[in-house]
């Protein structure tokens, strides 16, 4: 049985975290690295470690010390475009904790890591005291992603319901802890 340590990432974890994230955007999303969407992955320290209200968590496999999963939070609401205007207006930057990069390596899935990481991020957001909402979006084509987020939050916008939105993104709000 695997044992994992869930903790705030340090600079020593960044290469492992970046590897999990890049593997995910190539394997699960099929997009590969797209600078406009994934710039934070390259600059994890400036995106998540330096800003006081941001966080990057890792799940470290205690057998070998490798990063098995990641989860991040920042204070930026969804940008319009590409997201719908009503979401950008509802989830404003500074008042919105946006969950990002909740990724688990395939060989470590189905062990509760994503839920543990998200719970820790929700605790972080609640302790901050300045967030009024927790927002995220997910690609429903990624196996298990939509069901996972539906178990934690409520859908606030489903782009698949829009004309031509068959491949759309699903937007969620998750209650603060």
Low-confidence stretches: none
Report the strand count: 7
Please indicate the percent range of residues in DSSP E strands (runs of 2 or more). Answer: 25-35%
Calculate the mean pLDDT score and round it. Answer: 95
Counting DSSP H or I runs of 4 or more residues, the number of helices is: 6
Going by helix content, strand content and strand pairing, the class is alpha+beta
Q: Biggest β-sheet: count, sense, barrel?
A: 7 strands, mixed
Strand order of the largest sheet: 1-2-3-4-5-7-6
User: Order of SSEs, N→C?
Assistant: EHHHEEHEHEHEE
Radius of gyration: 15 Å
Helix content estimate: 25-40%
Net shape? globular
- Straight-line N-to-C gap: 29 Å
Task: Tell me what the structure shows.
The two termini are 29 Å apart. It contains six helices and seven strands. It has a seven-stranded mixed β-sheet, sandwiched between helices. A hairpin with a 5-residue loop joins strand 2 and strand 3 (67-74). It has 177 residues and is an alpha+beta fold.
């Amino acid at each position: 049985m695997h044992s994992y340590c869930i903790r705030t990432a340090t600079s020593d974890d960044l290469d492992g975290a970046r590897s999990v994230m890049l593997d995910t955007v190539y394997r699960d999303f099929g997009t590969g690295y797209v600078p406009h969407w994934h710039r934070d992955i390259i600059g994890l320290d400036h995106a998540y470690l330096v800003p006081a209200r941001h966080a990057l968590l890792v799940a470290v496999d205690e057998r070998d010390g490798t990063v098995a999963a990641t989860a991040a939070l920042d204070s930026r609401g969804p940008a319009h475009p590409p997201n719908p205007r009503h979401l950008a207006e509802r989830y404003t930057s500074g008042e919105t904790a946006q969950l990002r990069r909740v990724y688990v390596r395939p060989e470590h899935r189905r062990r509760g890591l994503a839920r543990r990481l998200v719970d820790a991020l929700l605790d972080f957001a609640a302790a901050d005291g300045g967030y009024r909402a927790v927002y995220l979006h997910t690609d429903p084509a990624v196996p298990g992603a939509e069901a996972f987020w539906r178990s934690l939050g409520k859908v606030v916008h489903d782009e698949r319901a829009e004309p031509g939105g068959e491949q759309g993104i699903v937007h969620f709000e998750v209650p603060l802890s």
